[in-house]
Design goal:
Layout (H helix, E strand, L loop, with lengths): L19 E3 L9 E8 L3 E8 L3 E9 L2 H12 L3 E7 L7 H9 L4 E3 L5 H7 L3 H14 L12 H30 L4 H7 L4 H9 L9 H37 L11 H11 L9 H7 L5 E2 L9 E2 L6 H17 L1 H12 L4 H20 L3 H7 L1
Parallel strand pairs: 2-5, 5-6
Antiparallel strand pairs: 1-4, 2-3, 3-4, 7-8
Length: 377
């Protein structure tokens, strides 16, 4: 009688990895993994996904350099890293994105998980991290995040402060004018017909002495609002000057075309970022600005499109203002509008076409020089 010896099992024993949970089925591995990260203010949650074996493990790390290094060491232990898919590369994930790039890894903006899948499967930090990894591996997430390490990021930070100052300045002026409705007749006559600067200067010069009647409180309030408006006006003008200097230093070519001023150029640079090579075509920039039409054809129709209501709305508005300026003062644009109107196009349709012309012009202005790309490679 011949006795056959038993073959030992081939399944691998799962290794212990501190801070993470491990899938025990490790016998089918490709050695190539994708890392998905769900970012938060204090902690990030990561999931590693093998191209064959699926989700292998998850990990929670603090949002500091030590935590980032722990994530990198943990991810390296599973094999060759193809890419990191990170949610919120422009907010909570910005520092992690910068760290991973400096370490030589590819980073992709994972975006928001599909809402239909979220309703079906529920939501948790771990599930969001897994969905980010799946989106990268499936090719749904392909956007390269902004590097945020140059002049465009500086402009963005200054514009945040500038836009808030302008908003609060407008609010102060609206409140002043609303309160003047209840002011005494003499004060209303003194302030009638004044410009905003003159009105703020006049009200800031009020010197109420008493606080015994509603009229006294009104004068105190108007004086306070006027001084606040003056302070915000000075602040907004200083920030505008700094933004103008940065735009002229970063991309002076954007200020050359007719109708593109400092504010529009700043919006363009904020959206494009410090690595414009990430935008691969004119169509990609048009879609990013919400200018590219969206197809709406079905089995019963063909060739139909609708307006794209997505994209960066501030940039879309800036391009719209440029088009309006050109339609009024730019002779070639005036001639184009007349020709298209004679063809039966409506003003709205003409504006859509002109916005696409402007975004095409902008794309060729922001493209990096060939020698810059060669040096970077």
């Amino acid at each position: 009688m011949t006795v056959l010896s038993a073959r030992p099992a081939t399944a691998c024993t799962p290794r212990y990895r501190p801070g993470g949970t491990v899938n025990s089925d490790e016998q089918h591995r490709s050695g190539h993994v994708v890392i998905g990260v769900d970012t938060h203010k204090h902690v990030h949650v990561a999931a590693v996904m093998d191209t064959i074996g699926g989700i292998l493990a998850t990990l929670t790390i603090p949002t500091d350099t030590g935590g980032f290094q722990q994530l990198l060491d943990w991810a390296d232990s599973f094999g060759r890293i193809l890419a990191f898919g990170i949610e919120g590369t422009g907010s909570y994930g910005a520092t992690l994105t910068s760290f991973l790039r400096r370490s030589g890894h590819k980073v992709v903006e994972a975006g928001r998980p599909d809402r239909r899948l979220r309703r079906m499967n529920g939501k948790s930090d771990t599930l969001d991290a897994e969905n980010a990894a799946r989106a990268v591996l499936a090719g749904f997430a392909t956007a390269t995040p902004k590097s945020a390490d140059g002049g465009a990021e500086m402009i963005r930070q200054l514009k945040v402060a500038h836009d808030q100052a302008v908003e609060q300045r407008s609010g102060a002026m609206v409140t002043m004018k609303a309160m003047l409705v209840h002011a005494p007749d003499a004060l209303r006559r003194e302030t009638a017909g004044k410009t905003q600067i003159s009105l703020a200067r006049h009200l800031a010069a009020l010197r109420p002495q008493r606080l015994e009647a509603p009229e006294d409180a009104l004068r105190h309030a108007l004086r306070t609002l006027a001084k606040r408006w003056q302070y915000l006006d000075v602040e907004a003008k200083e920030l505008t000057q700094m933004i103008a200097e940065l735009v002229d230093r970063t991309a002076p070519q954007l200020l050359e075309p007719f109708g593109i001023g400092v504010d529009t150029a700043a919006e363009i640079l904020v959206v494009v970022g410090d690595n414009p090579e990430r935008i691969k075509s004119e169509a990609a920039l048009a879609k990013l600005a919400g200018i590219a039409p969206v197809p709406t054809g079905s089995g019963m129709t063909s060739g139909r499109h609708r307006i794209n209501h997505g994209g960066h709305r501030q940039l879309n508005a800036a391009i719209y203002r440029t088009v309006i300026v050109r339609m009024r003062f730019h002779q070639p644009t005036i001639a184009y509008v007349a020709r298209r109107t004679a063809e039966g196009k409506t003003k709205r349709e003409i504006i859509r076409c002109l916005k696409r012309y402007v975004i095409r012009e902008v794309y060729h202005l922001i493209r990096p020089a060939p020698r810059t790309l060669a040096a970077a490679s």
